[in-house]
Request: fold
Amino acid sequence: MKVGLIGLGNIGKYILRKVNIDKCIPEAHIQAVFMHRKIKMKNIDVFESFDDFLQSDIDVIVEAANIKAIKNYGPDVLKAGKDLVIISVGAFVDELFEQKIYDLSKKYRSKVYLPSGAISGLDVIQAANNDRQLDKVTITTKKPASSLIDEPINQERVIYRGNAKEAIQLYPKNANVSIILSLAGLGTEQTKVQIIADPFITKNQHCIEAHGGFGQINLQIKNEPMPDNPKTSYLAALSLLSTLKNIHKTVNIV
Ligand SMILES: NC(=O)C1=CN([C@@H]2O[C@H](COP(=O)(O)OP(=O)(O)OC[C@H]3O[C@@H](n4cnc5c(N)ncnc54)[C@H](OP(=O)(O)O)[C@@H]3O)[C@@H](O)[C@H]2O)C=CC1
Ligand SMILES: O=C([O-])CC(=O)C(=O)O
Reply:
């Protein structure tokens, strides 16, 4: 599997190291990286031109950049018939973008993979929603205060209460989880979100509560942060790696 990577920040560097150096996925190799500024790397093609990147010898493209980048480049990836893995799932709050991705992937038979990222429980939410057995979904994200606000605080503070549609506009680097949860379940308007800044914690915590005809679920996950970007949970990078690993599997746990 020849992989192209968009973005070489915290998650991108992790994926590059795990795939090309540690050989975690024996059949995969990252052949090319697209960056919006020039850098040189050993043994890998770095492109500043997206067209040249797209035309290089790659068949799967992994986005590890940001919402703006995937909105700009995602549709062209699908038109080129390449498969696409998206971690900045917040882009799907834009319904026109979402529709475009569905239409193009169908038209060009390109597959799109959306990793579970920094949360768990999407299997339950998706299954329950199938037969309208899901009534309410809430996610409470609690992060170290410095990841969410600039001013020092000495007690936890609820900085946002509302829905996923609004949360991702206000916190595009912290609320991607609310969008993948919305896609699996009740949509961005019905998925309730609370974001809390806490000066006393070091882990990124997400608490998902849902109920309906299926029963109820309460999930709490406490994620280690990535060293270079503590806003991002280590699990998000692991989840992306796992998605890549599973792409060509013939037997899947779903
Ligand atoms: N789905 C989920 O659960 C989660 C999703 N995320 C999302 O994953 C994404 C990556 O996270 P992370 O690695 O921590 O972020 P970083 O900010 O560490 O890295 C992003 C990288 O992308 C580069 N970049 C930005 N714009 C472009 C562009 N147009 N073309 C190419 N490269 C670009 C940046 O370069 P430069 O610095 O030069 O601008 C930077 O190197 C973010 O959108 C984040 O919000 C994070 C955690 C969980
Ligand atoms: O990494 C996390 O814990 C969640 C996050 O930043 C996001 O969803 O955007």
The domain at 2-117+235-247 is CATH 3.40.50.720 (Rossmann fold). The pocket of NDP (ligand 1) is lined by residues 6-12, 34-37, 64-67, 69, 87-89, 117-118, 173, 176-177, 180, 229, 232-233, 236 (CB under 6 Å).
